[in-house]
Every structure is written in structure tokens, then in C-alpha cells.
Amino acid sequence: MSVRRAIIESDPSTFNVTQFCKDHGVSTWFFWDLRRRYRREGDVVLEPKSRAAHTVANRTPSNVEEAVIAERKRLADVGLDAGPATIRFHLADLPGVPSEATIWRILKSRGFIEADPSKRPKRGHRSFTAERANECWQLDDTAWQLADGTDVKVLNVIDDHSRLLVASSAMVTCTGAATLAALAAAAAVLGWPARFLSDNARAFCHVLADALAKLGVRAGHSRPSHPQTCGKVERFHQTLKKWLAKQPPATTIDDLQTQLDLFRLIYNHHRPHRSIGRRFPADVWATAAKSGPADQPIGTPTQTYNATISGGRVDVSRNLRITVGAAYNGLPATVVITADTAHVFIAGHHIRRLAIDPTKRNQPLYDRPGPPPAPTINPTKRKAPRHA
Q1: pTM of the prediction?
Q2: What b-and-e string marks burial along 241-255, b requiring 16 or more CB atoms within 10 Å of the CB?
Q3: What is the CATH number that goes with domain 137-287?
């Protein structure tokens, strides 16, 4: 029989209560208090009460916990990262916002996080990062499907230093010409990189590498079956697809490109990146030192034009027309102008390089000699008479 039950069922008039309490290691106050509580509460007093505090001083308030859960659901619903660090970033203005460790415990207690040993950091892993912005662009394409099941490609280009999403372009097939056009459009805003890094796809290691070599941009490629070399852009594919999966399926290439443009804005300006200290990639790129092609001064502006060749010439602007030859009539051309040098590309292949003559609108294919100069006559010299 337990001491509590013995106290309740005993008759205090038949024994010495003080001696009973002494023998059982309880106080007389507990003896009489337990009998009073039994008359009020019944058998519930047979089990001891919890000694835990009624309130915990350092317990996260329930409203803060609910805010953490609501933010987790909001981020997950739109396809963005929803880890403890990201949640804390978005709740920075919330009074009493908890630490990342506390947010992790809240999510785990609510069943949002399950331990995954495979995600444990591996020892010996080394990460290489370019020292300057535009020093290296990583690029790769990934597969996606439109609403009707049509397979398309998405070309992604990441700046190795700042993690800036340089370009994200939807295309039917990822050819060297399409890749060059995407990079040229990005370079018109950001400038050309010193080099690019890609896998061994033919469009990258042959067509694109040969074209960009004319602009002073070096090429680097990973060895076969080693995607870790281009790990930054490979990891970005997962982030992009996670977001796209939460969006309405795109019905056309143009609709998909609209979604990609929106995500590029979010990724560069509104999404803190873990690898750069929870800063925005656009801010890191803007404040970082820049690199550029080996044969061009850093900061040299680049202009890109796309036009169709007609009459053996490509009309770049109202004041500039470049001759390339009638053999290319009807083909689309990309013209890259850096300072006073123009490069003309057709289907990703370099066709012509020229130094622009600012005094001429038409830039001829060859420097043909002009008409011979007219003979000069000295008015002071008189012609001798025929008959002397």
C-alpha cells in the first residue's frame, strides 16, 4: 500500500500521527493536507502533482510560434526556401523573433522537419569561389515541360562570385547560337566575363567557346561525369524548378520566359543567399570588384544588336550598316559592338570583325581603292610653242 493511500484510509484517533509521519518520512502538514484535499478532490490526490513550473520564463510565446508556422507555409506555397534562417530573415521585424535554433525546434515539434542524415555536411568538402565579379560565369541548361507536355530547355547562367543570376532563358533547344544570344544580351547590361565554365556539351565547348574567344572570353569545361565542377549552376536548377513547380504551367515559351524573368528578379533582389552571408546577389555584384575579357579594359560598354541580313548587309542602327556578303541573306545575325570594334555572328559562328569608321554609315567588306587623283597643273609653267 502506498503512503498516500495509507494516510487517507487510516483513522488518526487510533495511532500517533507524529510517529506515523516520522516513520514514513512525511510531514504532519502533508498528512492533514492530503486528507483535506481527498475530501474535496477524491482519488486524484493519490497521484503526485507535477513539480514543473506553471509558466516557463524562456518559452517562445504562442503567437510567435504561430507566426513561424505561417511564414513556413507561405514560403513553401510559393516554392521558395523555407528553412529556419530564411524564416528568421523574413520575420526580422516581428517582436521577440526567436533564433534559428529555436525556429528549427518549433518546426521539428510541429512535424515540418524530419532528420535526414544524408544532408549532414561532409568533411573534406572544398568550395571554390571566384575572387571578383564577372571573373567566371557558370552556365548549363536543364529540361522543363510546358503545359501540353512539350519538352523545352532553360539556360541558366550564374556569376561565380556573387551568385547573381546573369540569365535564365527558355528555348526550344540549347544551341550554341541561342546561348551566345543569351550571353550577349546579359553582357550588354553587366559586361563580358573573363571566362565561362560549362560542361562538355558541344554547343558550349565548341560553338560558344570559339565565338567568345573572338571577344577575349576564355572557356573552361568540367571533365566528363563530374557535375560538381559546375556545382553552383547545377544546384540552382533545383531552386528554380522548385519555384516553377508552384506556378501555373506555362503554355508557351513566352509564358515560361515571363515566369523566368519574375524569378530572376526575386532571386537577385529579394532572396537572401546562404553562400554569401544571407545577402542579396544583386547587392554583392554591385559592390564587388569586376573582371572582364583579357583584351578589353574593365568597364568598356558593350552593345548587342539582332537583325536579319538583307542585301548582303546588316542594319545595326540608322547610322551604321555593316556589309557581310550576299551569301548570308535572310539569316539572323548578332552584332556585338565594344567601343569601336564590331563582331558579327551568324548561327553562333564568328563571321566578321571590323574597326568601325565613325565617319561612314556603310562599313564595306573590303577597303577598295578610290579613283586615281586628278593631275595637277602648275599655272606658272607655260607650255612651249610647237615651232621655235
Answers
A1: 0.75
A2: eebbeeeeebeeeeb
A3: 3.30.420.10
